[in-house]
Design goal:
Blueprint: H1 23-36, H2 49-56, H3 60-73, E1 76-79, E2 83-86, H4 111-118, H5 139-151, H6 155-158, H7 167-181, E3 190-193, H8 196-206, E4 213-218, H9 222-230, E5 234-241, E6 244-245, H10 247-253, E7 259-262, H11 276-289, E8 292-296, H12 312-315, E9 321-326, E10 338-341, H13 344-350, H14 360-371, H15 374-400, E11 406-407, E12 416-420, H16 427-434, E13 442-443, E14 456-460, H17 466-498
Parallel strand pairs: 4-5, 4-7, 7-8, 8-9
Antiparallel strand pairs: 1-2, 3-10, 5-6, 9-10, 11-12, 12-14, 13-14
Helix pairs in contact: 1-3, 2-3, 5-14, 7-14, 8-9, 15-17
Length: 499
């Protein structure tokens, strides 16, 4: 029986059989260079000497001796019963005393720190804004649903699923919107999207047309402020007050806007809600002019002071609203199960776009989670937990940061609290410095569009366990106090020297 030819595992190992160097020397040089240059990571398991010899048509003796030489030089280690691995420490990690060691150039202007603050993995730190109580994620129940999905061996998990999302989840979202937000819609209007950023981009792509003006809240989440101009639109920022976005001001500034982007249930970062009168005024404008509204319902499930108001989607008589939301953001953002609710007029256009797919198994498990009643039960539990953690945060801020910051207002909804700082304070510098004390927050100044950029800190409370909230605020208070003292010293220093 002829043995099938298997492509070599290490396809980049090319041996010169006519060259002056022996095959063993070439193998040694290849692995040594790959390890030193970082192309093979530390701890990587290598193929056995038998496999290496078979893949590259060399003798077993050549392969064994090459490995032995690399082990002797300190680049590989042999673990009996397990195999051969790249060493965790290699000779280049050790330099003779007094020898010059090549170091990469230091980043300029704090670039590395600024990249670090954008890393979503750092949102596991205390006070991370916008994060739900992921420490209470119902793992046991979720694992049961995942196991049930995989036992069914869904073909779409390993082939191609529905580009608009798996039907059971779209039906579950339809039921959720009806029960939670009073919206009547059809599963065919739902598009499931894998990722928060991708949801915003898909909504903007659906409305792509002649470049015009776009009304947005001011302040607003930085990504929205940055992404919309990249699509060719000119921003018109409408200020936020106690009743949410000032719709009259917005329409006076841009009555001919192509669309308005609004978060009626929870402006980010302020947490204010758009009043019913202003919702109706905005919807009347869209119905009358044919403009679009993108209604952001992320975090709309968490309210603390009043009952939910009708959505812009349900108020529109001519279906001029695209509603965007997430089934995963309230419970576990990493599941990446966002959705769009489209007017019928945009459904066909959406079929012509490339929709970023969400995990099929996660979609089907979420559908089961909803059908079992587990999603609604967990959401009710989170509302209680978030309200308690919000109260603890506000109390800790009052106790430890009085005189340092000013609470803009207790948020009506969402998972953020905004603290204002004195003018001239470097809020971005504080955000970067806070990583050293294991606190995650965001800079308020980065959220503004046209208005003077106020300085402040945006904190969260949802994902921080109760016993960690006060200690985190204490650490933050010490950091802010030191920063303000430095600012005061810098301001008075020259005057003192001149006297």
């Amino acid at each position: 029986m002829t043995r099938a030819i298997v492509p070599p595992l290490w396809g980049s190992l090319s041996l010169d059989r006519e060259g002056e160097r022996s095959l063993q020397a070439q193998v040694v040089a290849y692995f040594r260079a790959a390890i030193v240059e970082g192309r093979m990571r530390r701890g990587l398991r290598l193929p056995s000497s038998r496999q290496l010899a078979c893949d590259h048509a060399i003798s077993r003796t050549t392969a064994v001796e090459a490995y032995e030489r690399l082990i002797a030089e300190g680049y590989l280690v042999s673990r009996p019963g397990s195999g051969i691995f790249v060493a965790e420490r290699i000779p280049e990690d050790f330099t003779p005393e007094g020898a010059a060691r090549v170091r990469p150039p230091a980043p300029q202007g704090g670039t590395a720190s600024r990249v670090e603050i954008l890393d979503l993995r750092n949102y596991h730190l205390p006070l991370a804004p916008g994060m739900p109580a992921v420490d209470l994620f119902p793992w046991a129940e979720w694992n049961r649903h995942i196991a049930a999905v995989l036992r069914d061996r869904p073909h779409s998990e390993i082939a191609h699923g529905d580009p608009f999302g798996e039907r059971p989840l779209r039906e579950a979202i339809t039921d959720y919107l009806a029960a939670m937000k009073g919206i009547r819609c059809d599963p065919d209007q739902i598009v499931v999207v894998g990722g928060t950023v991708q949801i915003f981009e898909l909504a903007l792509e659906l409305m792509r047309g002649p470049a015009g003006r776009a009304i947005i809240e001011d302040p607003i989440y930085p990504f929205v402020r940055e992404r919309i101009p990249q699509m060719g639109y000119r921003l018109v920022g409408a200020p936020i007050d106690a009743d949410g976005m000032d719709v009259d001001r917005a329409l006076a500034l841009a009555p001919d806007a192509e669309f308005a982007f609004v978060s009626p249930s929870n402006n980010v970062p302020s947490g204010t809600c758009l009043s019913l009168a202003r919702r109706k005024a905005l919807v009347d404008w869209a119905d009358r002019t044919g403009a679009w509204i993108i209604e952001n319902e992320f975090d709309g499930d968490f309210r603390f002071t009043s009952r939910p108001l009708p959505t812009c989607y349900s108020l529109s008589r001519t279906n001029r609203v695209i509603l965007i939301g997430s089934m995963s953001k309230p419970v576990g953002p990493g599941l990446r199960l966002g959705y769009l609710l489209l007017p019928h007029a945009l459904v066909e256009r959406a079929h012509g776009l490339n929709v970023p797919q969400a995990s099929v198994s996660a979609q089907l498990a979420m559908a089961r989670f909803c059908a079992s009643g587990g999603f609604a039960t967990h959401l009710r539990h989170l509302r209680t937990v978030h309200a308690h953690r919000r109260a603890l945060l506000l109390a800790a801020v009052e106790r430890h940061m009085a005189g340092l910051v000013e609470l803009v207002h207790a948020p009506e909804a969402g998972l953020r609290v905004v603290l204002s700082l004195p003018p001239g304070t470097d809020d971005m510098g504080l955000v970067i410095a806070a990583h050293a004390i294991a606190v995650k927050m965001e800079a308020l100044s980065g959220c503004f569009v046209d208005r003077p950029r106020q300085r402040g800190l945006v904190l969260g409370f949802g994902s921080t366990p109760e016993d960690e909230i006060a200690p985190a605020i204490e650490r933050l208070a010490a950091l802010v106090r030191a920063h303000l003292e430095n600012c005061a010293g810098a301001a008075t220093g020259p005057a003192n020297r001149s006297t």
